[in-house]
């Protein structure tokens, strides 16, 4: 009897996989990494639509995936986003372990160390997509705008963030939401001009996208 039960359990599990369900009860998801930039962006958009609709499937978050990526990682996107606690990339894009390389800084500002972290994915892992993700009501941008409005300096290294955002502040004339979008576009332009990334962009191996996340709707829209 135990052998019969084991066989039936295995057949049932196979049926669940064939029917589109994982053994852990979640929906099945593709294990193949998108190789082309447009396919990677489409996968991110699909995941974000699920997140925004409260229909997240939380893929690649099980023991089998942990074992799979423990030996090798093949992330399909680098997401450059803010440190804001409300914008975790894996949740926003309904992704999982080994899917994304996350590079986070205040208001997704860039310096040489951050640029090096961003370059790691395309250069070392052939990651086909970089997304620079700004977001609604960014606290870092708001604080920088306030300091620039008042002509005051923020303490310590926080002032470095203010200086990094000064060009966007000038272009946006102090409008915080415009600053967020302009800074995102500036970051995209800076990455595209990088000596390691520019040739990959020119060959079509890499796409660098600017996007904006709404805290209210959960939706990501493309800016650049």
- Secondary-structure class: alpha/beta
Oligomer: single chain
Distance N terminus to C terminus? Answer: 62 Å
Secondary structure: number of strands: 5
Largest sheet: 5 strands, mixed
Low-confidence spans: pLDDT under 50, at least 5 residues? 1-31
- The assigned CATH architecture of the largest domain is 3-Layer(aba) Sandwich
Shape: globular
Strand proportion, as a percent range, falls in 5-15%
What is the CATH first-level class name of the largest domain?
Alpha Beta
What does this structure look like?
The protein is α/β, with parallel strands linked by helices. It folds into 2 domains: 1-30; 31-222, Carbonic anhydrase (Beta-carbonic Anhydrase, Chain A, 3-Layer(aba) Sandwich), CATH 3.40.1050.10. 48% of the residues lie in helices and 12% in strands. It contains 9 helices and 5 strands, in the order αααβαβαβααααββ. The chain has helices spanning 2-18, 37-52, 63-69, 89-92, 112-125, 139-150, 158-172, 176-192, 198-202; strands at residues 77-81, 100-104, 129-135, 207-213, 220-222. It has a 5-stranded mixed beta sheet, with helices on both faces. A hairpin with a 6-residue loop joins β4 and β5. 33% of the residues are buried. Mean pLDDT is 89; it is low at 1-31.
């Amino acid at each position: 009897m135990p052998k019969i039960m084991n066989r039936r359990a295995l057949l049932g599990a196979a049926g669940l996989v064939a029917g589109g369900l994982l053994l852990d009860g979640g929906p099945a998801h593709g294990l193949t990494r998108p190789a082309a930039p447009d396919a990677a962006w489409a996968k991110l958009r699909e995941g974000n639509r699920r997140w925004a609709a409260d229909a997240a499937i939380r893929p690649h978050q099980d023991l089998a995936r942990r074992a799979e990526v423990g030996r090798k990682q093949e992330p399909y996107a680098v997401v450059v986003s803010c440190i804001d606690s409300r914008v975790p990339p894996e949740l926003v894009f309904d992704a999982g372990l080994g899917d994304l390389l996350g590079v986070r800084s205040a208001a997704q500002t860039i310096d040489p160390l951050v640029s090096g972290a961003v370059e790691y994915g395309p250069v070392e892992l052939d990651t086909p997509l970089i997304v620079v993700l700004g977001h609604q009501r960014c606290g870092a941008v708001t604080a920088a705008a306030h300091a620039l409005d008042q002509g005051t300096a923020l303490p310590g290294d926080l002032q470095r963030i203010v200086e990094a955002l000064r060009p966007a502040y000038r272009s946006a004339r102090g409008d915080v939401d415009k600053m967020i979008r302009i800074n995102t576009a500036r970051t995209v332009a800076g990455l595209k001009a990088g000596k390691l990334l520019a040739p990959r962009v020119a060959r079509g191996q890499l796409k660098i996208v600017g996007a904006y996340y709404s805290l209210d709707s959960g939706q990501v829209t493309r800016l650049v």
